[in-house]
Amino acid sequence: MIIGHVIARLTRGLALGIIRRPIMSLLTLGLIAGGVYLMAAQGMIPGVTLPTSATVASAPSTSDMREMSVEDIRQSRSGDQITLVLKEKRGNRRLVMSVGMSEALAIASDLNRQARSQIEPPTSYDLMRSLVQELGGTVNRVVVSSVTNETFYAKVIMSTDNRQIEVDSRPSDAIALALRAGVPIFAEAAVLDRAGVTSSS
Question: Are residue 45 and residue 79 in the same domain, yes or no?
Fold first, then answer.
């Protein structure tokens, strides 16, 4: 009863104030609204949750990306170069890139999980995955993001409770981590347009 009376008087006074002093009243309303917003943002108003920038920003669209799979790892006849082949899952284009021996071994090991020893010591990619998890993050996917003069570049996309993180990486490291973490591998459509190799097979 008393609260209703107070609210009625405040409403009446505010209405009269807007008529008599419009600028001062608008400033007062702005201050009140700002205070309410600040209290809601700090969680001081039960049942009211404001979206943060992390929740408002949706995950980047994968519409301009293509999901890829590791099709092959092969060594040149001279043995001095190892080639990794990624294939479009819903297409026939491939990305062919050179990788180092240690990355090739890690990728091959994950492609042939049944042959992996149960007592195999942890690799650096196990360490990377564990570090991300222990710090409260999750590896979401990796993206082959650009190519310059036949050199490919990649990003590892990770997330925590309130934000998304992109870390630049060599494609071979990113792909090895993706296989170890069991997350998808993507390539930007522009990279496939520029460096993709089409095969009839």
Answer: no
Instruction: Indicate the pTM of the whole model.
Output: 0.63
Task: Provide the β-strand partners of residue 60.
Answer: none
Same-domain check for residues 80 and 176: yes
How far, CA to CA in Å, does 32 sit from each of 5, 82, 87?
20, 66, 58
Using one digit for the tens of pLDDT, what is the confidence trace for 86-109?
999 988 999 999 998 888 888 888
Least confident segment among 62-66, 70-74, 177-181: 62-66
- Alpha-carbon span 71 to 87, nearest angstrom: 6
- Going 165 to 169 to 174 to 175, the CA torsion angle's sign is positive
Give first-to-last CA distance, the chain, whole Å.
81
Same domain, 22 and 80: no
What is d(CA 183, CA 197) in angstroms, rounded to the nearest whole number? 24
